[in-house]
Amino acid sequence: MKKSACLSLLLAAVLLLESTALPVRAAETTETTAPPTEAAVQDTQPVETQFSQPSDLAFGTVGIYNGCRGINGMVSLAAYEGQKLQTAQSVVVFERNTETMVYSYNADLKLAPGTLTKLVTALVVAEQVPLDAIVTCSSRNISRLPGGSQNVKLKEGEKLTVQDLLNCLILHGANDAAVALAEFVSGNQEAFVGLMNERVKKMGCTNTEFGNIHGLDNVPQHTTARDMAKIMVEATKNETIKELLFTRSYTVPATNRSDARKLQCQNYLISESVTPKFYQTRVTGGLASYSDNAGASIVCTAEEKGMDLVCVIMGAHRTFQENGWNADYYGNFDEMVELLDYIFNGFRVKRIVYEGQAMNQFSVIDGENQVVGQPLVNVDTVLPNGVSMDNLKIEPTPVKGGLTAPIERGQKIATTQIWYRTSCIAEAELFAMSDVRYKKGGIDPNQGEQARNDQDTSGFLGFVKIVSAIVLIPIALYLVINSIRRARAKARRRRRRSGRRRSR
Q1: Longest dimension (CA), the chain
Q2: Are 107 and 77 in contact (CB under 8 A)?
Q3: Quick one: which of 358, 323, 347, 277 has its CA closest to 78?
Q4: CB 123 within 8 A of CB 238
Q5: pLDDT beneath 50: ranges in the chain
């Protein structure tokens, strides 16, 4: 009995020791494997689900493709405000100070540019040659133009400065001045058109292709309201062009072949001498266009109430009185005044992100506390009157899907998006306002790979211990009890045999 019971107890002890030895062997195994990379460790951490990313787009592009941020913004701020002009085929209003696409309608519709072409012609000339350079006109300046096109009657051999010809080009829309300037800069019109197309591509104009230097309808060419806004933004960075677009009148001095020429601005928004009803003190420059093919178009800049607007209207309809030449409805001027009233009366500039403000609070895995994110920049935008921060939706997204301690003050911890209706109006990076240390019992990765491996395997080994205890202990007890019962049965058999021998 003693020998059998001892063997059973010994077997049970061995099984229990085997279960407790599993953690040691597991630890030894992890020591021999290659340590995980930093990225692999972070990918295994749980992700905070309380934050949602409304778009898969990279930071800085959400406001473009899903919002009104920048001149390429695809969802304008006023996209759902219900405003629509009477006849314009394409409209853009861009606010430069805040880089907000305030209003757009068919912004990328390709249309004939008409006289707006001359804005690029003037810019290329101003960038290529000095204003006081002398241009000698040739007979080609007149012979290559369609009959009846706008001109200032330049004569062969006439000498004018580049500045004089630029004023003829912009104020009077003179096509012969365009030819004279183009041939002076490039030798021929075709080469100059190449310069124009190269220049607008550098501005990011992806839907513009010029076919001539003046915008006449004798060749195919196209642009869009968005591209014209880009062109206007770039052109008005040039002081010469900016001044030209706001010049109301100019006198070309007498030349070797002509008396002085008095020029009057054809943009009625900045000059009240022709049609005072369109005059706008808030308009700071612009260029107007009309042709039977391209319709009535206009590009202008305007400033009021802290906003600096670039506005484009293309392809509006013009109607005429019975005499056939007095306009009854101009289209471009009428609708631009309506558009400016709508924007300046209905919108305002508002700061929606402040440098150093506490924006969002985030959970930190293994951290002693949560962390608050702050932006390091101010962000302004244009908003409709009456809209407050309560009307905006803030969507924060922690970096890498979740934050893990430790975190240092000033560390980038998240990005955030601010939405108005369906338009993302701003994006900002958020940085930790304070340090976050490891909570007690947490595992600092700086303590070494062994601590990290122990933490990774602790859950599995605990499970193995529990299973071992549940399975092996009953087996051991069964073996002990069975050994005892067998020993007692043997003892009873011996006593019976001994009793039978005495009775004999």
Answers
A1: 165
A2: no
A3: 347
A4: yes
A5: 1-7, 9-12, 14-53, 448-452, 455
